[in-house]
Amino acid sequence: MRVTWVLSMEQTMAPLQPKGGHFGLILPLCTSSATVGLALFQYPLFSSMLSATPSIAGAPFSRFWAAFIKPAAPFFASAALVSAVSGVICGRWLHTHATLETTDVSRFYVYGAVLAAGHLASMPAVAGPIKRMADGANGDGDDAAIEKVNREEMKTWFLWHTVRTLLVDIPALWCFAEGVALSFWVV
After folding, report:
1. Domain ranges of the chain
2. pLDDT tens digits, residue range 77-126?
3. Which one of 58, 65, 96, 131 is most buried, by most CB atoms within 10 A?
């Protein structure tokens, strides 16, 4: 009787045992998770900088943006690019190994890849306010004027950042999470 239970338990748990294909299928989920995590972290980071006393929203904030954007932009772009490309590859791989289930699962990867590419497509809307804030780093002009510009540009940046996070990044993460969860059961 016990042997029967062990065999049936192994058969029941078989879909949860990792297989080689699973490791590649989680890459878009990992990079998309990083994108969402960093996007959410930027709210308290930049809000605290704008509310610091004494204010650092003037030239110091511009210097921060000028220094931050150089390493950050390639990192965020590469994370979105890896999510998009690996999502397409995973979707293609699942579709190529077509069964009724994998074809349905592959759609989640493709949708996630399209949404991850939307992160890249929205970069110009987010980059404009960042560039205008970083322009104040050279110290030309009075700090009160730079602070006023930075606060207005941060409102614009927060708007576009929120729209992108809610309409692109979180749905992409959900699509990849759904794809990974389903692929563990069918691959």
Report:
1. 39-186
2. 999 999 999 999 999 888 887 665 667 889 999 999 999 999 999 999 99
3. 65
